[in-house]
Amino acid sequence: MLKIMKKILKYLGLPVLLAGMVWSCDDLEVPITTQLTPEVFPQNSTQYIQATGPVYVAFRGEFSFAWWWSQSLSTDEAILPARGGNWFDNRNYIAMHYHDWNADNGIIGSLWDWSSKVIGTSNQTISILRQTMPEGAEKKTLISEIKTMRAISYFMLMDSYGDVPLDTLYGDFTSKAKTPRKEVFNFIEKELKSAIPNLNPASGVTTYGRPNRQTANAMLAKLYLNAEVYTATARYTDCIAACDEVINSGLYSVEPRATYLQMFYPNNGPQMKEFIFAVPYDPAAVTVGYNGQMYHARYDVPRSERAKFGLPFTPSAPRSTLPEFYAYFNDANDIRNKQWLTGLQYMNDGVTPVMVTTTKKGYDQFYTGSDGGASYTYQVNLTPDIIPRQSEALFDLGNDEIAWNMGYRNIKFYPDATSTNRNQKNDVPFLRYSDILLMKAESILRGGAVTLGQSADALVNMVRSNRTTSAILSGVTLEELYKERSREFTWEAWHRNDMIRFGKYEGSWGYKTNTDTYRRVFPIPTNAMVLNPALIQNDGY
Which end of the chain is less congested by CB atoms within 10 angstroms, N or C? Predict the structure, then answer.
């Protein structure tokens, strides 16, 4: 059963339905067409479940790509500079670091396209189920699941762009203007609350990869936690209440320190007791449908360490963190330190050095000696600083071994050596139980009342006691909680959301000095505005 659930999206994306599924890639208001006819409409329970597949396939597609790039590269958590002309990509990546992106940025465009695709596909799927499925509990559950996925996608869209069009009716192809952020917030809240009674109350294999009742409660908690940002009205009491619903369900627990790292391994899945909602990945799913772009190892593992991780491809390794962010990992007893590759590198035995043989010039392109072509062998040493040695204007570190070894690398989503392609089968969590505990702690620190006898200190230490052997914290402050969130959710694409809520998004890190507050939301992509003339660009852009 576990193996089946790890491949859930293989059966959810059956060709009979995918063949006729065409959606907007650029805008919510582009007509969504279908080749589905009454003769091929779903007609039994299995087919009704299969009919929901395209929604999950669409969500998976860019979840670990456009969502991750936009939420992490725009913070101090991650940076992707050019190296020897590679990865410049029309300045898409480094613009995220400098906070000088514009409406033509490819990452920002892909994020809009992706979330719009999920929403459009959800609208179509809901329409199909409403028309073809007999009334009953199963129909209510399936439609509520898809409404929850649509609400999640609207959360991502609203969080990233502010005011966005609300379009929930399949078949209405009129251009729609932006809806105020507060109204989108209210829509998401209403959708989630109405879905909760109909969602499956269980957790585990039977619900994995699909939203259950606690997915909706956890999403409400995330919505309320950020309510002051979205609506100018704090909702911390509501956040605590939503967190308590998840806590009182008794379905989840914090992963122990001994197995924390395994939570993100390629063999993770429904057995992970922290996962409230996760996106399943399986490289084999490419034979049926799009597996999505889940290949963190390609971007994060140094190319010199292919053999160490047994990868079937040479990683390009352009992505790293910044010293400012790595400074949060200052507790030698914290298991979360082990998600990083730093300093001198060794094979997995911890003894054999990772060695590279090149030339003196290949090691350092600025070497001026007459013997630049002479052989040179060195032990790989990952350094913390990111320095544009080749070109400051192009933010190019250089095309030599020194450049390729700049930056500490994250391997939280441990490389998948079993995959025959660059796609990994590590499932990626979107909502975890530790987030519930830390959201509740933050809400209490921001003025909410203690419930269930759980103080902010107690909640934070419930997480920390499963991560470090160091002493517990007392008198936890918001700043300490922010650092704890940074350590806990590294590489899980929540850091932008946190930085904005804590007022840190306008700070300086790396080479970024831009303090423009309007960049708390991204610009409406140019292609979206061309396709939908009713859209008006966000202020400042």
Answer: N
Low-confidence ranges of the chain (pLDDT < 50): 1-35, 38, 288-289
Return phi, psi of residue 249, to 5°. Answer: -65, -25
Cβ atoms within 10 Å, residue 69? 26
**Quick one: residue 513, left, alpha or beta (phi over 0 = left, psi -120 to 50 = alpha)?**
alpha
Beta-carbon count within 10 A of 450 CB: 13
Angstrom CA distances, 324 to 31, 119, 384, 510, stand at: 46, 36, 10, 8
pLDDT in tens, 509-522: 999 999 999 999 99
Q: Is 335 left (phi over 0), alpha (psi -120 to 50) or beta?
A: alpha
3-class DSSP state for residue 325? helix
Could you tell me the two tokens for 179?
Answer: 């809806």
Rg from Cα positions in the chain: 23
275 beta partners = 432
CA distance 24 to 528: 10
Report the sign of the C-alpha dihedral through residues 426, 427, 431, 436, in that order: negative
Strand runs labelled E in 303-436: 340-341, 343-344, 355-359, 375-379, 381-382, 409-410, 428-432
The residue count for the chain = 541
The structure tokens 């809009």 sit at 112
Specify the pLDDT at position 336: 98
CB 299 within 8 A of CB 79: no
pLDDT of 40 reads 62
CATH, domain range 2-295+425-531: 1.25.40.390
The per-residue pLDDT for range 173-199, each reduced to its tens digit, is 889 999 999 999 999 999 999 999 999
Which amino acid does the sequence have at 218? A
Backbone phi, then psi, for 380, in 5-degree steps?
Answer: -60, 130
34 forms beta bridges with 21
Residue 187 host element (H or E): helix 181-195
Q: What is the rounded CA–CA span in Å between residue 506 and residue 500?
A: 8
At residue 286, what is the residue type?
Answer: V
Domain map (residue ranges) of the chain: 2-295+425-531, 319-410
Predicted pLDDT at 290: 54
Q: What does pTM read for this prediction?
A: 0.92
Q: Tell me which DSSP letter residue 206 carries.
A: T
| Tokens (6 digits) for 372 | 């630049």
Please tell me the distance from the alpha carbon of residue 415 to that of residue 423, in angstroms, as a whole number. Answer: 10
Q: What is the DSSP string of 252-311?
A: --PPPGGGTGGGGSTT-STT-TTEEEEE---GGGGGTS------HHHHHS-GGGHHHHT-
288 backbone φψ class: left, alpha, beta (φ>0; ψ -120 to 50): alpha
The number of angstroms, rounded, from the C-alpha of 4 to the middle of its chain's C-alpha atoms is: 24
Position 282 scores a pLDDT of 85
